[in-house]
Structures are given as C-alpha cells and as structure tokens.
Batch of 2 targets.
Target 1
Amino acid sequence: MSDMQEKTLLDRALSVFAPVRGGEGNRVLLLALNVFFLLTAYYIIKPVREALILSEWGAEAKIYTSAGQALLLLLVVPLYSRLAGAVNRRRLITLVLLFFMGCLVAFYFLALAHVSLGIPFYLWVGIFNVMVIAQFWSFANDVYTNEQGKRLFAIVGFGSSAGAVFGSFITGQLIEPLGVYQLLLLSGVLLGVSLALTLVVDTGAPQKEAPKTETKWGRSGFTLVFKNRYLLLIALMMVLANLVNTTGEYILGKRVAADARASVPEVVLVDGMSAENLALAEAGRMNEIGIITGKFYSGFFNVVNLVGLLTQLFLVSRIVRWGGVHRAILILPLVALGGYFMMGLLPLLVITRWAKTAENATDYSLQNTVRNMLFLPTTREEKYQAKQAIDSFFVRAGDVLAALLVLVGTSIWNLSVGGFAWINVGLALVWIWVAVGIGRRYRALT
C-alpha cells in the first residue's frame, strides 16, 4: 500500500481520530467492528455469569473460583500454544471461535436441563474473556507493521471500548424480554459475526514472512516469556497493573460501603417492638444501603466509560504520536501513583472516586491500546503464544495476588483502607520502574 495512495471518504473521516493514510480505512474499520462484536458478546454473558454463581453458590465461591481461573490457565495456555504451532492463523482463530460458540450452545441446553452451571460457567467465561480478546490483538499485530499499528490501533481500541459500553447497555434492555439463558445464544451469534469479519480481513491482509531467526512454532507461551527479558517485563507489568487495580477496587468498595452505612440511621430497638418488626426494619435499612451503593456504582461506571471512550477517540493516537509508545506506557502508573498518594493523604470517598475514575478510564483506553502495541515488533510466535500467556495467566495472577494481599492485610496486618493505598503507592513505583525498562527495550527493537 503506497503512502501516496489517494484517500477515500472513509480514510478522510477516520483521519479526524488517527493519521489514516490512503487505502487504510476499510481494514481498520473492519478490525474495530470485529473487536466491537467480541466485547459486546462478552458483556452480554458477563451478567449471566454473575447471576449464576451468586444465586447458586454465593460471593465466597466467586472469590475462590477467580483464583481457580489462574490455575486452569496453566493447562489451557500450553494447549493453545500447541494448536498455534500446528495451524496457520486463519485456522487457529476459526477453531478457537467455533469452540467457544459450541460451548455457549452446550451451556444453553444444560441450563434448560436444570444442570448447576455456576462454577463451571464462571471458570469458562474467565478463560473466554482473556483468550479470545488476546487472540484478536495478536491477529491485529500480525496484519499491521509496527509503524501502521502505532498509527491505527487507537481506532481499533475504540471499537473495544464501544463494544463494552454497548454490550452492558443492550444486556439491560434484553435480559427481561429474552431471559438469562437466551443471551448465551445471542452471544454465540455475535462470535460468528466476529469470525466472519476476521476471515474477510485475513483474506485481504498480506501474509508476512517469518524472520529467518524465528524458531519453529510449538513452544509453550510460558517458555517464550521466561526466555525473553522484554516479554518477561511485559508479563511483570501486567501482574503489577492488575494487583494495583484490583486492590484499588477493594479500597473503593470499602469507602462506598462505609459511607452508605453511615448515611442510613441504625435501627433502634424501642419498647414493645417485636422481633419480626425489628427484622423488617433492619431489612429496610439494608435495602436502602443497597440502593445508595447501586446508584453510586451506576454513576461511577457511566463516567468511567464516557471518559474512556473520549480518551480513546481523541487523545490516544495523539499521545502515542507525540510522546511515543515508550512514554505512553508510563502514563497509567503515574496516574495510579498520584491517585493512591492522594487517597493515603486524604482518605475521603470523593478523592477515591475520582482517582479510580482517572485510573480505570486510562486503563480501558490508552493503556489497553499501548500494551497491545508493545507486541508489534515481536515475532509471530511471540504474538500468538507468548501474548496469550501474558494476557491470560499473568493477568489472572495479579487478581490472585490482590486477593491474598487483602486477606493478609485485613486478617493479619489489620490495615485500614488508607494503609492499602500506601501499599499501592509502593507498587506503583515498582510498576514505573518496570515500564521504563519496557520502553527502553521497545525502542531498541523498533
């Protein structure tokens, strides 16, 4: 594709958001639509996952099952690596998406047969989320050069952000008229649309020659990560990012719960009040606390999603173009450092809310795009196999470490939420150091 090729109307329209060159608009739009449908499919089944495990097993089982996902990925990632080493990218993506589509159909019929699905479905959704999204970005890395990816991934990332927002919205509209289990079939249909778009893009995309120094495919993604310092630093960054973010979610939840309880008066036992009336009054109080909490999170998520969308659409491409990937990768840990420093100094809900809004919105937009750009200069083997290991197991490992930190911090160290904020300050400093190392190696590779 020549840089001098005349721009189409679509190319010019997309150039408002990123430096799209002549003839690039069609493919980048198809990729954005592809990831839009993937994220919509995920956010349709996400509420089904929550409903099944909470109704069947409760919140404690949800925490333990989250840790189980990391253990399960120790088995799944090597299997994926073997498959990736045996087939080309077109067949790999087709087989993986058909497998997950088949699983959704199977879960639908098992639900109709009244089989308990809470824990297996929760585990499956956790694997589905990390593997399918990581595979999409591996494909996007494979069809673009490093120079193209740095310019165009901002538009592709907008498709991801928009899919998350649309999926959450449409689920709220459809869950009552369709029912919980019918949403599984709808999600499967959207995966089919994503597969069709992948095949269209792959047909028109150039097949890159593998570098002569590239080794034979089939090695485990974990092996690739631990033998390459650049990939190992990226994996460590993902662990730290999830550890900090998940611990921050705990801090926010504690602040919200405390403020909600403080805003609703305690039930006072008066003379002549029966045990039944006391229980009813306490239930009414808990319901009011639940409403206050729900309203807070509804507003919080809406602002996070809106800021993330606007950042993705208007800022991400410009930040990468002006500062470079090696500087852009530092922005989220710096935002986190400032936010948790303020939380430690001023332990107020308003500070925690806006610090987490800035952190999450940056994570969902800029960080999500830039961390996928880090794989542009890697080999195809590393794009599919090492990236799958990093975006699945190492991400979940961060969640597991956060759960352990909260457990130890509350039961042994007796930390306040302010204490957890200061721990995150220290973790953010380590994160910045790792990001600097990644930036140096990225510049060397490019």
Target 2
Amino acid sequence: MKTIGIIALSGTVNKNKLEKSVANLEQLGFNVELSKNIFDKDRYLAGSDEDKLEELHRFFSDPKFDIVMAARGGYGAIRLINKIDYDLIKKNPKPFVGFSDVTALLLMIYRRAGIITYHGPMACSDFSEVSNFTSENFYKALQCEKLEFEGDKIYREGAAEGIIWGGNLATVVSLCGQDFIPDEDFVFFAEDLNEPAYKIDRMFTQLFNIEKFKANCKGIVLGDFLDTDNQEWLEEFFYAFPLPTAGGFKITHAKDKITIPIGKKCNLERANLVIY
C-alpha cells in the first residue's frame, strides 16, 4: 500500500475539506500522512516558508513516502523556489503532484532536479469530493508507460514532438526571470481560471517574446480557460498561434481532470496527444 504525504505549500488549508480528502484517499487504498504545517496560518499562507521547506525536504528524503501531494493551491509556492534543496530531491526522486499555484514547483523541480513531476489532482481541491475520472487518470499516469488523450478542437493543423511541459498559465509567467525553460524541444500545455481574454493574450505573448521559449516550443495543448470574459476573442487568439495547436483537453480547475507527467516525451498530432 502506497503512502501519500499531503503537504501545505501555498494557501491556508480548510480542515473540513482535508479530513474528507484523507478519508477518501484511504478508501481508495492509500496510507496518508499530513505535513506538520498543514493547518498553520500566516496571513494568506499556510505557515512560514521555512516550515514548508522543512516538510518538503522531509517528505522527499523519508523513504516511507511514495507520493508527495499538495494540499491545495492559492498562492505561496513561488516563494520557495530559490530556497529548495534540489540536490536532495534529485537523490530521492518520487512523484510530486499538484496544479495551479503549485505549477511553479512542478516546473522548477523538473528543471533543477531533473525528475518527472505530475500536473494533477490535489488533496483538498480534488479528493474532498472524489471524481472517478480524476482518480482513474491519476492512477493511470503513475502506473502506465503510455498515456493518450483526445482534445476536441484543432486550431492549427500539424504535428509536434518533444517533452510535455507547462501548467497554470499565470504561474508559468510568474517564473519569468528564472532559468525555468527546458533546453529541449517541448509541447506547451496551459490552463487558467478567472483571467480575462486580454490577460491570457498578454501572458502567451510574454512567453513567446522569450527567444528560448519561442525556439523550443513546438506545439500547444490547451486545457480549460474557465470564467474568462470573452471566449470568442480567446478562440480568435488561439487560431493565431504559429504552431500545431489543439484544445479541449481536460487540463483544468474543474472537477474532472487528467494528470500529466511533466518532462515525459510526447507527440501531438491534430487533437491527439500521446505521452510516453
């Protein structure tokens, strides 16, 4: 039986949601242990950066933990990226799972420790009320060598290959100024929530204004952009990408989501994404 360590790395954690999450994960067959800072509060943060780091390092270095899962997103993960002991993580590789604000850690751990990280469900966000679709895709991503996903929209025909890399768009952009872009070719995946169309345009444009991003990005996979103000403008913008681009993938803040192993090789052709 695998043990999941649930850790608070961003915003404050709701006790009721967490208790439901633990019960549901145990019912799914996992042992669960919580980080010592899980209910800490420091303004809008789940305790101090120092305590978060201490627990993150403990969860990676202790062999009893098979999986490290973020409790929730919000804000706070980016405060940790230049304080993490990436060598410790590299020497103790294991699946690290989260999305939204946790994208910052997924990408920096992949970049600096060189281990696959998982853009997928979090404890309070996804396991307080279990979605069979989400839990099945989570299992599959951890266990299968090959994953295949179908989108429902083709914005730009073509094929692309490289590693699969990306996450929450606003959080990816917040890493600008860091050494965070892969050296290898990649297919960029993105989603977001509560962002107006012009900001989504601005964030993509900011990334493509980075020469390394522009040179290494070979295709685009679009998830949900929930609660935007003008979906029609967004559709126009997505058609304008100069790369093979497909959308309609369940990469999302919504209940049903797929899990994507960041750093694995992939092929994108039309609206078919294969990760292996």
